[in-house]
Amino acid sequence: MGNLNVSVISNPEFLREGKAVYDFLNPDRIVVGIDENDNKEKIKKEIYKIYEYFLKKQIPIIFTNLETAELSKYSSNAFLSVKISFINEMAMLSEKTGANIEDVSKIMGFDHRIGNEFLNAGLGFGGSCFPKDTLAILNIGKNNDCEMSIVNSTVKFNDDLKDILIKKIKNKLGSVKGKTISILGLSFKPETDDIRESPAIKIIKKLMNVGAKIKVYCPRGMEKTKKELENYSDCIKYCKNEYECAKNSDCLILTTEWEQFKNMDLEKIKNVMKSNYFFDFRNMFSDNENIRNYFHYYPIGRN
């Protein structure tokens, strides 16, 4: 067998779960990392052939070294994670001061230097990418004796946020021990069954650990949650829809912003509940003028 001349490149993807096909066909940029010792011009010609379709669409192709290509992927996700934690921290401050976090987000978003994406207050980030990539940044920093204080604070606040919200629930209900709490949404975001690092799952575990009885419903995340929480099977009931989930519950918590939930019959939900506490941790109903006619309603970042 003869000697093989193989080049290794880094071509990171920047795809959103649930929208990967669209993102693949409509990239903001294409990044290619090339080893410093390789024949760069030859590799560039091959890359241009592969991405000819995108060149015609005038999508920029950025050539760099391997380290930069890899770090650009981690940096992009870490920055978006910082943005999410920042707006959630501002949401907690808004609740204390009487500000409206949704108006704060809107005002910030009009600034072209900031932009309006990833400024929706909620439960924090989850899924397979942001948690993994922020921890990767911290590990790279540690291995290179570089303190990543901003990313470290982002990860910490994202974890602490769940306890802050549990405390909010306890304060309003008096206690959650023995209470039946209904959870709407299990996947870390809508349009997927992915529950990896899902904020909803973390909220559920924390509530069960302090004695709450849990009912859950999610359009797609049920089966994976059953496997994830199989050791909690005595404390959790899986329901066939949002109305069964809400039945005889003391408290309803919306944790994932599925479109299906936006269209649910609020009066029907209220009528089947034992008590009418509703924690909207995605602010799906914050602009609904009738919501407070049915519930003791608590969104994120609004007094």
Inertia-based shape: elongated
* Number of β-strand runs: 9
Q: Give the strand content.
A: 5-15%
Spans of 5+ residues with little confidence (pLDDT < 50)?
Answer: none
Chain-averaged pLDDT:
95
What structural class do helix, strand and pairing data support?
alpha/beta
Query: Radius of gyration over alpha carbons?
Result: 23 Å
- CATH class assignment of the largest domain: Alpha Beta
Question: What is the number of helical segments per DSSP (H or I, 4+ residues)?
Answer: 13
Q: So, CATH architecture of the largest domain?
A: 3-Layer(aba) Sandwich
Look at the structure and name the CATH superfamily of the largest domain: NAD(P)-binding Rossmann-like Domain
Note the run of SSEs as H and E.
Answer: EHEHHEHHHHEHEHEHEHHEHE
Task: Give the biggest sheet.
Answer: 6 strands, parallel
Fill in the CATH topology of the largest domain.
Rossmann fold
How widely separated are the two ends? 72 Å
The total number of structural domains is 3
Largest beta sheet: strand ordering:
6-5-4-7-8-9
Helix content: 40-55%
Pathway: Nucleotide-sugar biosynthesis; UDP-alpha-D-glucuronate biosynthesis; UDP-alpha-D-glucuronate from UDP-alpha-D-glucose: step 1/1
Domain UDP-glucose/GDP-mannose dehydrogenase C-terminal: 182-287
Active site: 129 (nucleophile)
Family: Belongs to the UDP-glucose/GDP-mannose dehydrogenase family.
